[in-house]
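RECORD TYPE: inverse folding
INPUT: C-alpha cells
STRUCTURE:
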C-alpha cells in the first residue's frame, strides 16, 4: 500500500470512529432526557433507532465492544416493547449499566488521540462578536488553548448567517458592536429568529448603567462582563450553563404493606425512569437499604410489624442513612398525626391517593437535592473536582475494574511548578485562578470516563481507564504543552505556568495506595529533572 493510500485509509477510519462516538453520545443523550419527562412510545422508537445506528456504525468500523453493547441494548428495548412498552426497574438498571459501559468504552487502542480524546465539557463552538478585532483575536486564541472552538465575527450578516446554520455553546456579544447599543439590537433579533435559547454573555469595555444591564437581561443575556474578558472565567460560566444531567437514574425504596399500593407506586416511578424496589415487610428495610442504596425512601404510615415513624427512627439511627430523604405516602388525613410522623426525621408527607405527577415531582426534587448534597461531600469546593479522599476511593475501584476486565489503566499525578511564586508575586486569588484554570483545562480535554481529582493544594490526580502507558504519556504531555502556552492576565502583565507530571500504569498486581505512591515518585522524578515535563515509571 502506498503512503497516500495508508493515509486515506487512516482518515476513513477516523471518520467512522467519529461516527461511532457521535452515535454513542446520541443514545446517552436520549436516555438522559428521560430525567425530565415520562417514558413514551416515542422514546422507545428514538432509542431503538439510535441503538440501530450505533450498531451499524460500530460494525462498519469493527468496534466489537460497541457492537456487543448496542446488541444488548436493542434486546432490552425489545423486551420493554413486548412488555406493553412498560419500563420496569430491571430494564432501567440494564439500560443504565449498558450506557455506563458505553461511556467507559474507549475506541480500539492505537487510534488517533484526537478521535479518542474528544473535549467533553463544551463541544459546540463559541461565537465571538466583539467591536475590537484585536481583542477578539487575542480572546479567540486564549479560548482555543482551552480546547474550545471559536468563530470570530466582524459583521452582523455573517454572524446571523452562522446562527442560522449552527447554534453555538454561547454568544459573547459586545453591547457596542459596530455602533453604541447595536449588540443589544442584534441579540433581540437572534432571540426573535431562533426558538432555541442560546446563552448570551454581554460584554462592554466600560462600566454600564443599570438601564443597559436591564436591556441586556431583556435581550436574553445570561451574564454581563465589563473590562477584561478572561478565557478561564468564560469557560467556567459556560460549563455551569451546559452542565450535564446526572446519568444515573434515581433509586427509590418503597415500603408499603399493601402489595397493590406498592405496585402502583412502582409503576408510576418506573414510567418516569426512576428505579424502584418495593417491599411489603418493613423489617426487611435495613437489608434492602444496604443492598439497593436508594436515593430516597417512600414509607407507609401504618404497617403491622412496625409503623412508619418507628422505621424512620431505626433508619435514622444508622449513620449511613442519616441523609437519605424519607417521604410518607399515607391515607392519614389528621394533620397532627402527620406532623408527629414528620418529626421523626422524615422530609415530606404525601396523601393517598396521590396524583402520579405529584409523586414523581416530589421524588425527583428530593432525590436531586440529596444527590447534590452527596456531591458536595465528594467534591472540592474551589475546582468542583473530586476531593483527595474520593479520588483515592475511585482509584481503588478503578484498580479492581482493571484487574477484573484485564484492561489497561493509568494513574497520573500533576503538580504546578513553582506555585509558591505565583502566590507570592501575584497574590493568593491569582493562585486560585491558576488552580481553577488547570481544573477546567483537564475537564475540557479528558474523556468523560476519566476521573479527575484535586489531590492537594496545587496537585491533581487523574485516572485514565482503558489507556495504555504510552498513550497516557502522550496525552498528558500534550496537555502540558497547551497549558504552558496559556497567558493569564495578571495585574497589568501576563503570567504563564507549567506543571510536572508522573504517569504510571496499573500492572494487575499493585493496590491503589502503591499505585498512588509510584505516581508520586514519577512526579518527583519530573520535578528533579528540571520541571515542566512528564515522567513515567
Ligand atoms: N492560591 C492557592 N495556593 C495554594 C493553595 N493550596 C496550596 N497553595 C500553595 O501552593 C504552594 C505550594 O508550594 P510548594 O509545595 O513549596 O511548591 P512549589 O512552589 O509549587 O514548587 P515545586 O512544586 O517544587 O515546583 C504553597 O505556597 C501553598 O500555600 C490554594 O488552594 N490556593
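DESIGNED SEQUENCE:
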Amino acid at each position: 500500500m502506498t503512503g497516500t493510500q495508508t493515509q486515506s485509509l487512516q482518515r476513513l477510519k477516523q471518520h467512522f470512529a467519529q461516527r461511532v462516538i457521535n452515535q454513542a453520545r446520541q443514545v446517552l443523550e436520549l436516555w438522559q432526557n428521560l430525567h425530565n419527562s415520562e417514558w413514551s412510545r416515542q422514546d422507545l422508537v428514538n432509542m431503538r433507532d439510535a441503538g440501530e445506528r450505533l450498531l451499524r456504525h460500530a460494525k462498519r468500523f469493527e468496534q466489537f465492544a460497541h457492537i456487543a453493547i448496542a446488541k444488548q441494548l436493542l434486546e432490552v428495548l425489545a423486551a420493554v416493547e413486548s412488555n406493553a412498552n412498560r419500563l420496569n426497574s430491571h430494564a432501567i438498571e440494564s439500560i443504565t449499566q449498558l450506557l455506563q459501559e458505553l461511556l467507559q468504552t474507549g475506541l480500539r487502542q492505537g487510534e488517533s488521540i484526537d478521535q479518542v480524546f474528544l473535549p467533553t465539557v463544551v463541544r459546540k463552538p463559541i461565537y465571538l462578536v466583539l467591536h475590537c478585532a484585536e481583542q477578539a483575536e487575542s480572546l479567540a486564541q486564549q479560548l482555543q488553548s482551552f480546547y474550545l472552538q471559536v468563530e470570530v465575527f466582524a459583521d452582523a450578516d455573517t454572524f446571523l448567517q452562522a446562527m442560522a446554520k449552527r447554534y453555538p455553546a454561547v454568544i459573547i456579544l459586545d453591547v457596542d458592536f459596530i455602533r453604541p447599543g447595536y449588540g443589544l439590537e442584534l441579540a433581540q433579533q437572534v432571540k426573535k429568529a431562533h426558538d432555541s435559547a442560546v446563552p448570551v454573555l454581554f460584554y462592554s469595555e466600560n462600566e454600564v448603567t443599570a438601564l443597559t444591564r436591564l436591556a441586556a437581561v431583556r435581550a436574553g443575556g445570561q451574564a454581563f462582563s465589563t473590562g477584561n474578558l478572561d478565557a478561564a472565567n468564560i469557560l467556567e460560566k459556560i460549563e455551569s450553563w451546559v452542565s450535564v444531567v446526572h446519568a444515573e437514574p434515581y433509586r427509590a425504596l418503597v415500603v408499603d404493606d399493601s402489595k397493590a399500593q406498592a405496585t402502583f407506586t412502582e409503576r408510576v416511578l418506573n414510567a418516569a425512569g426512576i428505579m424502584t424496589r418495593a417491599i411489603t415487610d418493613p423489617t426487611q428495610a435495613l437489608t434492602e437499604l444496604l443492598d439497593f442504596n436508594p436515593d430516597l425512601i417512600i414509607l407507609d404510615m401504618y404497617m403491622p410489624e412496625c409503623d412508619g415513624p418507628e422505621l424512620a427512627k431505626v433508619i435514622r439511627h444508622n449513620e449511613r442513612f442519616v441523609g437519605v430523604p424519607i417521604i410518607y405516602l399515607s391515607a392519614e388525613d389528621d394533620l397532627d398525626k402527620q406532623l408527629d410522623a414528620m418529626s421523626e426525621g422524615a422530609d415530606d408527607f404525601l396523601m393517598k391517593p396521590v396524583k402520579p405527577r405529584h409523586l414523581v415531582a416530589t421524588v425527583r426534587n428530593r432525590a436531586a437535592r440529596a444527590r447534590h448534597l452527596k456531591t458536595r461531600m465528594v467534591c472540592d469546593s474551589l475546582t468542583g473536582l473530586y476531593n483527595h479522599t474520593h479520588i483515592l476511593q475511585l482509584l481503588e475501584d478503578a484498580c479492581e475494574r482493571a484487574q477484573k476486565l484485564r484492561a489497561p489503566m493509568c494513574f497520573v499525578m500533576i503538580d504546578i511548578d513553582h506555585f509558591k511564586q505565583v502566590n507570592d508575586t501575584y497574590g493568593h486569588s491569582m493562585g486560585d485562578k491558576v488552580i481553577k484554570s488547570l481544573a477546567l483545562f483537564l475537564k475540557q480535554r479528558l474523556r468523560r470516563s476519566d476521573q479527575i481529582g484535586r489531590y492537594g493544594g496545587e496537585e491533581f490526580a487523574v485516572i485514565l481507564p482503558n489507556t495504555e502507558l504510552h498513550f497516557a504519556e502522550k496525552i498528558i504531555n500534550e496537555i502540558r504543552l497547551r497549558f504552558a502556552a496559556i497567558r493569564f492576565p495578571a495585574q497589568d502583565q501576563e503570567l504563564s505556568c507549567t506543571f510536572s507530571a508522573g504517569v504510571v500504569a496499573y500492572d494487575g498486581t499493585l493496590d491503589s495506595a502503591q499505585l498512588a505512591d509510584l505516581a508520586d515518585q514519577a512526579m518527583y522524578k519530573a520535578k528533579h529533572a528540571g520541571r515542566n515535563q512528564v515522567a513515567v515509571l
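NOTES: The CA atoms of residues 127 and 322 lie 47 Å apart.
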